[in-house]
Design goal:
single chain; about 150 residues; alpha+beta; 60s Ribosomal Protein L30, Chain: A; four-stranded mixed beta sheet; two-stranded antiparallel sheet; about 25% helix
């Protein structure tokens, strides 16, 4: 089966922690932060376009994610060039694992049935001229399921 490839445009966004609000001081309600919900919707739209009508994967999946973060404009031209050349690594937010969570949740019901199907995954975080997240998902063929 052909790999599913898509790009989520814009600066990567890490999955935010659930927020809690109360009504009348009695009832607590948890909700997903708006920024996270918007980003997950953007992921779902990009994934849906890449699926082009295919059914979601039902077996184990291998996922490769390349995060490209924007280069700070306050940096010198020399440091910006070094970042583009891969000589400077982004050791700032967002955390790679939080972006991974957002990407996985955004693909639920679109690329795969549920993100528990992700068995192999690799994440790279770098600086890029055009920020975004490139995603490649491949169903693992010939996998044996343990009973």
């Amino acid at each position: 089966m052909n790999p599913i490839r898509f790009t989520v445009p814009g600066a990567p966004v890490g999955k935010g922690r659930p927020k809690v609000s109360t009504r009348g001081g009695k009832f607590a309600r948890m909700y997903t932060p708006e920024k996270t919900a918007s980003y997950e919707n953007l992921i779902a739209l990009a994934a849906q376009a890449a699926m082009a009508g295919r059914e979601p994967l039902t077996g184990p999946a291998d996922v490769t994610i390349h995060m490209l973060l924007p280069i700070p404009t306050s940096w010198s031209k020399r440091k910006q060039a070094a970042a583009l050349a891969g000589q400077v690594y982004p050791t700032k937010k967002p955390d790679g694992d939080n972006v991974l969570k957002a990407i996985f949740d955004g693909m639920n019901g679109v690329v795969w049935v549920d993100d528990v199907q992700a068995c192999d995954f690799a994440v790279r975080k770098r600086y890029g001229a055009t920020p975004g997240v490139m995603v490649v998902v491949q169903e693992i063929q010939g996998a044996l399921f343990a009973a």
